[in-house]
């Protein structure tokens, strides 16, 4: 039970203060679900709750929508929390630390036994100074100073993304690319032998005085990529096809095939 | 003038492939503007262009909307690019490196003299394998495996955010070796055409059901190195020799020459 509780409390609560559009609430739920956040609270939503437009916009984030709790005041919504971040695009007077999303989410991720919440304001004008004053710290985004307005779902998305990264201490991607270890050199040299033999039999290296330079260049081009074993196998297949098989019709007449 | 050109080319182009909803295009423009991206390209947008819903959803990102360029094919949209990232939520077979948004954007930010582009697929089903095969590397997001679907504007937002962070972290190198600048993609595609034609005339791509996969793999292997113009010229010379000239004696009898 302690393990479960501890797991739950490491995940921040997202709190929307007086959200107006159901669509935005749904998109917030979806953004949260993308990065493993589960707990959404609404303070005095304009169109009440539940909200059909929110359900539609949430796509398949039903688990977030169904667990959403509604409060009359921010004070009530924060009652059980221990560490609160307020998002804002504007500088505020006061003594609060200001973090970017990454640093803010590192703060949250390290508070594993605490209930943390992140506040987002109204679509049109954000949080009041009084609301910001309830937070322990401010989060703002490294936006272009000429174009600072993030919509609410985008702001939640960035915070959720950074929380997941902080919580996992790096990027745990859903899949990784193929092995990109370069092959052992003997594999590369085997390809050189095959290719150079095929070219030599076609007179590519004439005149003889140029041969050494041509080979140097060719090897340089094929060495720089650091081809893997699998890539070299594929390339040797291509070379073999070009070398061993005759074309079925002259080049350029393919469209008459 | 050189300074301006250099500054422009350090900022990636966002390319949306067959976007369906004008609202999404507008939200993409807005997300780009938030983090200082300027250049949007559309490949074959469903509802044509210009699009009133895109303008409305872009909020005040008019400068992005007005500069948007439309192309009939992805190939044309990529013709002048040198390094291409494809975003995808699904694992693909093949030989491409896979990065998270942060690592991917560090790649872009260090390529100060290169035209970089980031591809985003259709709302419903993303990019085809053939489209992904045109990219140098894959970007995927560290999402919850149970809830992986990001909408297109959200995906653009995360990449734009990471690009701005990377670009501002002083990771831009003052110069790069010109000898390692990747060629423009049309040069690479010219090599693909030549090679695939030569192989096709030899029956390499049979049975027909395997052809698309074989081509994807081949293109992936030849895209990853980021060959320069000079390297592509050399490789095309090799392919031409193998394709057009018959061997003077059977393979394996070279020692009797």
UniProtKB/TrEMBL annotation, chains A, B:
Keyword tRNA processing: yes
Enzyme Commission designation: 2.1.1.200
Localization terms from the record: Cytoplasm
Reactions it catalyzes: uridine(32) in tRNA + S-adenosyl-L-methionine = 2'-O-methyluridine(32) in tRNA + S-adenosyl-L-homocysteine + H(+); cytidine(32) in tRNA + S-adenosyl-L-methionine = 2'-O-methylcytidine(32) in tRNA + S-adenosyl-L-homocysteine + H(+)
Pfam families per UniProt: SpoU_methylase
Stored InterPro entries: Alpha/beta_knot_MTases, RNA_MeTrfase_TrmJ/LasT, SpoU_MeTrfase, tRNA_m1G_MTases_N
Entry's Gene Ontology BP terms: tRNA nucleoside ribose methylation
Gene assigned in the entry: trmJ
Full protein name: tRNA (cytidine/uridine-2'-O-)-methyltransferase TrmJ
UniProt source species: Limoniibacter endophyticus
The tRNA/rRNA methyltransferase SpoU type domain, residue ranges: 13-161
GO MF annotation terms: RNA binding; tRNA (cytidine(32)/uridine(32)-2'-O)-methyltransferase activity
UniProt keyword list: Cytoplasm, Methyltransferase, S-adenosyl-L-methionine, Transferase, tRNA processing
């Amino acid at each position: 039970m302690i393990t479960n509780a501890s797991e739950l409390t490491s995940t921040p609560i997202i709190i929307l203060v007086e959200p107006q559009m159901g669509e935005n609430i749904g998109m917030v739920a979806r953004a949260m679900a993308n990065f493993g956040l589960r707990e959404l609270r609404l303070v005095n939503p304009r169109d009440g709750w539940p909200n059909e437009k929110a359900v539609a916009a949430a796509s398949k984030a039903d688990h977030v929508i169904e667990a959403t709790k509604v409060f009359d005041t921010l004070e009530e919504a924060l009652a059980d929390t221990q560490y609160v971040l307020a998002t804002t695009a504007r500088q505020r007077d006061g003594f609060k630390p200001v973090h970017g999303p990454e640093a803010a989410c590192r703060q949250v991720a390290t508070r594993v036994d605490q209930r943390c919440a992140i506040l987002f304001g109204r679509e049109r004008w954000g949080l009041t100074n009084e609301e910001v004053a309830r937070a322990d710290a401010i989060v703002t985004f490294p936006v272009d100073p000429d174009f600072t307005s993030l919509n609410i779902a985008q702001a939640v998305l960035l915070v959720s993304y950074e929380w997941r990264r902080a919580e996992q201490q790096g990027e745990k991607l859903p899949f990784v690319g193929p092995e990109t270890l370069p092959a052992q050199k003997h594999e590369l040299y085997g390809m050189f032998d095959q290719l150079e033999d095929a070219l030599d039999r076609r007179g590519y290296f004439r005149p003889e005085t140029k041969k050494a330079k041509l080979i140097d260049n060719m090897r340089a081009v094929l060495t720089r990529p650091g081809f893997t074993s699998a890539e070299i196998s594929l390339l040797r297949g291509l070379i073999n096809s070009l070398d061993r098989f005759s074309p079925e019709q002259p080049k350029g007449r393919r469209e008459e095939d």
